[in-house]
Amino acid sequence: DIQMTQSPSSVSASVGDRVTITCRASQSINRWLAWYQQKPGEAPKLLIYAASRLQSGVVSRFSGSGSGTDFTLTISSLQPEDFATYFCQQANSLPWTFGQGTKVEIK
Amino acid sequence: EVQLVQSGAEVKKPGESLKISCQGSGYNFTTYWIAWFRQMPGKGLEWMGVTSPGDSETRYSPSFQGQVTISADKTTSTAYLQWSSLETSDRAMYYCARPRSCNSDSCWWFFDVWGRGTLVTVAS
């Protein structure tokens, strides 16, 4: 199985801050990576797919980059509604696997 | 509107069987595979398996192979996740989800449509 390792596991930030979350795959996954946002009591929401493509309806302050084994999700200017947990997911090979999550908390 | 509607919360005892459902609407149900995910309390997401409603092809994560059965009924646009004998460790939220796009050959396995989840509680 491909292991996905996210860092940090949590980050404390203020509204307006730039936040960067990284995800590392245990082997190359090309650009077969997605990022999801999950708020308490809600289902995950797809933000970014194919490493850098913004899902329809997602605000442009979210962006993704990377290929191979190293990927980044950036929130350019953190808004109150962005406080949530973020997961990466590899879609390169079965079984699809997720990172352990990064919780973005209010500073 | 494209949506997946999951069945309601369940409370079961160890050893009991259970079948939860996920009904799709607003799109051609047979065109898209349906995947199931587990999220244990306070934990991350785990992919369990995926089924093609069109031809009933199903693939399982090795972690869940033999533990659950995934199926779909294209006549009712409903996918199912079932257990023959629940354990307390099966207590979790279970989500169904649809890949972002599928064609006749494959899908882009990024999941953009999710059900709201079915909470399964197993306790004696």
Question: What does this protein structure show overall?
Answer:
The complex is a heterodimer of chains A (107) and B (124). Chain A is mainly beta. In chain A, 0% of the residues lie in helices and 50% in strands. Chain A is built from no helices and eleven strands. Chain A has strands at 4-7, 10-13, 19-25, 33-38, 45-49, 53-54, 62-67, 70-75, 85-90, 97-98, 102-106. In chain A, strands 2, 4, 5, 6, 9, 10 and 11 form a seven-stranded mixed beta sheet that branches. A four-stranded antiparallel beta sheet of chain A has the order 1-3-8-7, with no helix packed on it. The mean pLDDT of chain A is 97. Helices cover 0% and strands 53% of the residues of chain B. Chain B is built from no helices and eleven strands. Chain B has strands at residues 3-6, 10-12, 18-25, 34-39, 45-51, 58-60, 69-73, 78-83, 92-102, 107-114, 118-122. In chain B, the strands form two sheets. In chain B, strands 2, 4, 5, 6, 9, 10 and 11 form a seven-stranded mixed beta sheet that branches. A four-stranded antiparallel beta sheet of chain B has the order 1-3-8-7, with no helix packed on it. In chain B, a hairpin with a 5-residue loop joins strand 4 (34-39) and strand 5 (45-51). Classes of the chains: A mainly beta (107), B mainly beta (124). At the A-B interface, strand 5 and strand 10 of A face strand 5, strand 9 and strand 10 of B.
